[in-house]
Amino acid sequence: MCSYFLLMVDRLCKQQAHCISFQQITHNTVSFPVAGDEMEFKKKSKTKELLETIDTCSLLELEGIPLFPSLDDNIEVLEKLFSDCSDFVIREFRQRNSERAAAIFVDGLIDTKEVNQALQSLMVLEDGDEDIRVIEERLLPVSQIDRVSDYKELLQAVLSGDTGILVDGNVEALTLGIRGAEKRSVNEPEGEAVVRGPREGFIENIRTNTSMLRRKLRTPRLKMKSLVVGRETNTNIVVAFLEGIADPQVVDEVSRRISNIDIDAVLESGYIEELIQDNVYSPFPQLMYSERPDTVAASLLEGRVAIFVDGTPMVLLAPATFWMMLQASEDYFERFQMTTLLRWLRYLFMVIALVTPALYVAITTYHQQMLPTTLLLSVAAAREAIPFPAIVEALIMEIAFEALREAGIRLPKTVGQAVSILGALVVGQAAVQAGIVSAPMVIVVSLTGIASFTIPHFNVAISLRMLRFPLMIAASILGIYGILVGVLLILGHMANLRSFGVPYLSPLAPMSIGDMKDVLVRVPWSFMEKRPSFLGIQNARKMNAGFSNKVQQRGGQAGTTSGGKSDGEGKA
Amino acid sequence: MRRLTPIVVLLLCLLPVAGCWDRREVNDMALVIAMAMDKEPNGQYRLSVQVPLVSSLGSTSGGGGGTSGDKSYYVDSAVGKTIREANNIIQSRMSRQLYYSHHRMIVIGEQLAKEGMSDVLDIVARFPENRLTAYLVMTKGKGIELLNAQPQFERFSGEAMRELVKMEAIAVSLKDVAQMLTTPGVDAFLPIIDAVDSHPKGKSKEVEFMGIGLFRGDKLVYMAKSQAIKGLRWFQRTFTPFSVVVSLNDKERLTVYFSKGKADLKPVIKKGRIHYDITVFATSVVVENMTSLDLDQKKNIALIENKLKKEVEVSVKDTLNLMQKYRTDTIGLGIILARQFPKEWRDTYRKNWNDHLPDITFQIHSKVVVQDVGQTTKNITKEEGGRE
After folding, report:
1. Where is the Spore germination GerAC-like C-terminal domain positioned along the sequence (chain B) (predicted)?
2. Which residue range forms the structural domain that includes residue B179?
3. ipTM score of complex
């Protein structure tokens, strides 16, 4: 062990120029009980410090530590770093007629066949070279190749799936982007299925995801800023936006907030969402997520910013507003009348999902005069044998429903059926027959459940479902007055909420009448000449005014271009 | 802000403290569907309430529904010096709280109607649970008998009466009665509903619309049969359709249904005498033709229209005669006079309008249009050429 240290110190002394960071380390050395002169002590402590710190440090702490010129040194450091890493491979080889070299990679992350071919060109087909620049320029036929000079960059690339090539006598290394990790194929997005529209959804691989977005937006204006977050996960993050449309301040703010994140791991976009959102305690999601490339592309075109996180198909969209979460991508593919009706249906059922149980409790315990007599008699007949007050009954049923829903999600699909049978039979029927809950309550709960499922985005649906409970309790104490107080508090909170500076309820509050065309209704495409203005976009116009006028004329485009009979009709 | 937060939280905590005081579960309530008010011979009031027995209404839970076989409602009544006292007596033997928000039928007994009903109507208007939209009817005899009737179609007689009043009779709500009682120049009237045996006689007793009770002030003066008072319908704000039988001769008759109608009144004061020009406009439909009249022919239509005109004029005249005889202004002639001649009304007539009523003269015109004769013109089962 001791001889190893001496060896290292020797080598270090030879390349003082690269040792700046090591000297910084020496300032806070611990005492080192070795006899000898001052100089000797310092040199030895440097080496020991490096290896001791290297043992525990994460990639971020390796920043600025340069590669050594000697291959053996590098290999020694790497072996120490990756001791007990069975999947980390250091393949040492000798280039044909030249210096020794090593390929380092993580098994399973690379495309072995392709890497073999690349190595072939160094070991078999061509004469090697001692200069890594020459190898990069002339010898390695690999399309994605990069030169790195410090450990952080090298290891980040290698751990992401690149293959590193170290050549003896060089202070730089090559990273070959020949990745071949296992990944899921592109599937239909399960969370956001559509009847009409593209059937592809994002997958866990960030490169595949960005390529899917690039396929939608083939323009150099689509920018993708790359960031890395997470001390241990080193998760790749891409901030995508359309330059010239998105508000540069928002883009900067998003990038700034993400790069400020200091956390050990980012395993899903939810981590990022919670770490960059404006209000921690709000029940409402302040960033939207989507697994559909078309939704993301459309959001970028509205001037929003997309945040891709490696390892999850969920792409974050910011700034988010409440109304966009009540819209589905299909809204823009189907005819506008249907879409408008569907939107209103969703708005209606959103209210139903929020207040129906509370209203039921309030009306049956305080405001019986509000029901038609015959309905009240039915309710009274059904509640006759029920031992609990309405609020207890409502809480029992609502909680049971939430449990059923949760159980249905977590269970494997084959068992899931059993849950639904149990739920339908036990809760739906037996409970009513046994006189524990009343039939109207079951209806109210089912209606609420169905209503919450009409909201296209799960995270909004679940926040509304959660807010039902305080409203129910308020209703049981204060009746409809309590519901009003609760709803006002919720509305006030929503009006107060911001997502990256954009009011959460915009364009309804603050009112922006021109943008109602895509919230209260969905106007035909030819009327959507402008992008939503509340997002602070740079270039508002979506289509040429002259063109949209043509389309809106009677006869549509045919009325103006084909001439003849239909032309006259178009002008009429 | 930091300091404000606990204060705001404390204030919010005050909200639930203010709650729950008027909480009542549906199964702790006795829903009053209909109530009847009578006057006992000793001068006390009898209040009767009809309350559905919710448990026997056939709920889905357990073995309810029909097995008990008995009535699905319960009528209780008590006597008290005031209505509220009677209510308290009923409440004291009822395990559930009486809840009046859903009663839509108030029955006034004959005796009470004769002795004046405004005293008892006070509680109905004063008590916030009651609704001014509840319908008011009166009955011959005791009101409680109407509540005890069990009509076949509805579960409660209260419900049956409500439907009947809306469809067949001239519906009078509590609000209408209040207005009629307080406005000078018009007198109140109430539909009369009686409990009658169905034919052939069965277990059930049906409720039937019998006529109109005419009031002067808040006291009943005459109970008119519905045929005798049908002229009143022309003068109502919303016309209730009815049908009449037209006799061509001794044997041949038609039934005609008046679908629309309204009356136009023009008062004239000449030398201190009040005269009304009354024009009735009516639209009618022939619903039954037992004659051999060919309704395809214009002259036959004109013939019917003439007959109908006479019929309408007679009906109005009968009604007015009745009103004059009992010195009650059911139509509201006084209001019309007051609008036309406010000064004269205020100076001379307002104080003793009912005494002026018998001296009024009328001229009645009518315009009747036969709008529709149905799907056939002649009686299709009758031989052709019976009559031209």
Report:
1. 210-374
2. 26-58+68-226
3. 0.83
